[in-house]
Amino acid sequence: MRASHLARFVFFQVVVRPLVLVVLGLNVRHRERLPRRGPAILAANHNSHLDTLVLMTLFPWRTLARVRPVAAADYFLSGRFRAWFSRRVIGIIPLDRSGRTERAHLFDEVSAALAARQIVIVFPEGSRGEPERLDRFRAGLFHLARANPEAELVPVFLHGLGKALPKGEALLVPFFCDVFVGKPIAAGEDRDDFLSRYQAAMAGLAAEGDFPPWE
Amino acid sequence: MQAVLSGILGLLIVATVTISVLRRHWPRRDVTELAARVRSWWIMAAVFTVALVLNRAVSLVFFAFVSFLAFKEFLSVVPTRRADRRVLFWAYLAIPVQYLWIGYEWYGMFIVWIPVYAFLLLPLRMVLVGETRGFLRAAGVLHWGLMTTVFSISHVAFLLVLPGDGSGAALVLYLVVLTQLNDVAQYVWGRLFGKRRVVPSVSPNKTVAGFVGGVLSTLALAWVLGAVLTPLSPAHRLAAGLIIGVGGFVGDVVISAMKRDLEIKDSGSSIPGHGGVLDRLDSLTYTAPLFFHFVRYFYF
Description:
The complex is a heterodimer of chains A (about 220) and B (about 300). By secondary structure, chain A is an alpha/beta fold. Chain A is built from nine helices and seven strands, in the order H-E-E-H-H-E-H-H-E-H-E-H-E-H-E-H.
């Protein structure tokens, strides 16, 4: 067993699962809609570093090795330890946000993962942004989905994690968090049509919950 | 105590058998909700029994964890202010401290820690944050949450150490069994004979027949179980039954009123068939402190 594999096991089973299930606590709706196997794309809103960890705990340990979050290369690959941890322990697929990579090759590594029947997690809002507020979704999701038509694209709405650990805060405050899984969406041919269908699916999921005000 | 625990086991077996008979003979009737509720009762009874009989440290950690779950659920359904994140963190820290006083059997500190110190210090922490918009509401909501989910519930745990000779577990069992069976009895009497509503604007399911039938059942059970589990005199056992029967009803409708105000049906979804932790503990938030101070005044 490789050291990174052991680190991954300990990190997820000993740290992340107790943290997410006991300290926070999840309310998952429509769990049966989660893809059992790849290729699949989970597209969620992004409020907190916890988002990725929460989405990964939705999968059993045996599937977890095949779940790959797409994350910003400029942040997650800076520094030797963080780069090792992100790549080997979490298993991220780095995405170049600097604009130096040609657009046509931006998602090469993601497409390769999907070709290897993995489950990819993406945050089409781009960054965590204002906590607990839905930002504009970026067109990258459409290009990714169209380039990989065999992958099932599943929208996931997350609530509460931005309250527990918002951007720029290091102190975690426990709250129950909601995870609402949507029905798969087809890429289609038209970018704006796809984005508005995705937006509508996310708004529909958000409307399923009664969320108290947080101002 | 063994006899009462066996009795609970018997009740659960009867409930499970009844459901499978219903399933076999009336397959068209939907008992999914009822089955989920009974399954959750099995788990809750098992965890509670283990936590109660193992040893005192385990029991205290268990009750502290129950308070934590209830308080977290409360904070997740009420409106909170973004500015108060750190204040809420301090409020969470009040929980282990409250149960630590119980571990030390320090009654004086246990009884003032939340109503006095947390009450005075958390608003100070809020002042240091500096956000005044919604201040009074936020401070009031936070304190109400701590009082119900931590202060009230921790009385169950103090009951455990109150006699000082190890007989506290039986008192806890007495209180919890009576409170939960009172809930069930009020529900069953209400379903069978209920017509006139007690508080229609708060909880349409609460009827006079349910309330009266429930209280009478609890009185009878309090009298019988009290002889086995408590040092209470026959008259005091009836008084305890009255306190738990009426108190349980009030706790239930008070939490219902809170949920009405927040426009939610359940406080959470962690217990299948029951709703959230607070939905299960609602009556205990009243019966625990009321029963505790009753026995403490007359016996300990």
